[in-house]
Amino acid sequence: MHSPSRSVRFHGNAVQAFHGYDGSFPGILHLVLVLRPTTLFQRTLSDFLFKYNRDEFKMKVVMLSSVTELHAYIDPGQLTTELGGTQEYSHESWISHRTAIEAFALMVKTTAQTLQAFGTELAETELPNDTEATTALLHTHSQKKDEMKEDLQVALSQGGRLLECINEPLQTDDEYNMTYDELENLATVQRLLGQLDETERAFDDFWERHRTKLEQCLQLRHFEKHFREVRTQLDVTSERLSGFSEVSVSPAHAEHVLRELSGHEDKACDALDHALSLAGEGDRLIENSHYAEDSIRPKCSELRGVCEEISSTLRSKKSLLLRAMELHHALEKVHVVK
């Protein structure tokens, strides 16, 4: 039997507990239902204490004399059997489910934070200036992305197992009615899984944009490298072409220069073909919405301009040499007639 002092301490603690509960709920606590103790002394003492402390409560507190009165406030279908209800309650099972759900909620939060940190790292990464570094970066980021996706799948699998555990009674009894706690657990897990799905979709969208940017960066570095190589070939071709003189001293000399020019023309055409092919590749990059259009387009124009200049110079020199040969032959005929 409880002593009066213990009962006073108990009810004093109960008053403090109500104040604590009031601050713990996410919303406003409007009503507290209290079942009176069964013994006469405890009932009398509790009535006195709650009446004496009534003004201290920030919410309405209703003292109930019996479980029957409790049913006037709460549907028995939402109460456990010890309170005259129909809900089966296992404290061990409740703790097990809550622990698992809280662990899953922490995993969802940690996974989202990890993905967000990885996304920030990707967004702040500077694009490399050469093909080797870009290739290595794309490989490294792809590996990290795969690891992130594996962690995400682990979290989704754990959530799926939790759902199966909560729904397990329904597998054996189609008419089973879930308790309020089970329905709440089910809604919580489904909400967390929904958050994971949204996180995964957002991450996939971000990764796709990042991967495209890295691949376009790699395309740009290849284009720039080939541009430098082709530009060097064109400079060499143009320089060699400028070494051919249009002036000839005899038909034989003109024919010799023309022959060498024709031989150089074959090599020049190869360089021009490479340059025009690279310009076409640049056009395709632009058509595919490459982010570096402002850098690619001028290079394509430059390649085509140099190619046109070389082709024009080549045609001009050939034309002048052919006219020189004709002139030399005409002069020879004049000398023969004389």
From TrEMBL:
Keyword DNA-binding found: no
Organism: Notothenia coriiceps
GO cellular component, one term: cytoplasm
Residue stretches making up the CRAL-TRIO domain: 1-91
BP GO annotations: positive regulation of Rho protein signal transduction
Pfam families the record matches: CRAL_TRIO_2 (PF13716)
InterPro entries reported in the protein's UniProt record: CRAL-TRIO_dom, CRAL-TRIO_dom_sf, RhoGEF_Guanine_NuclExch_SF
Molecular function per GO: guanyl-nucleotide exchange factor activity
Coiled coil stretches, renumbered: none
Keyword Chaperone: no
Protein name per Swiss-Prot or TrEMBL: Guanine nucleotide exchange factor DBS-like
Keyword annotations: Guanine-nucleotide releasing factor
Organism taxonomic ancestry: Eukaryota, Metazoa, Chordata, Craniata, Vertebrata
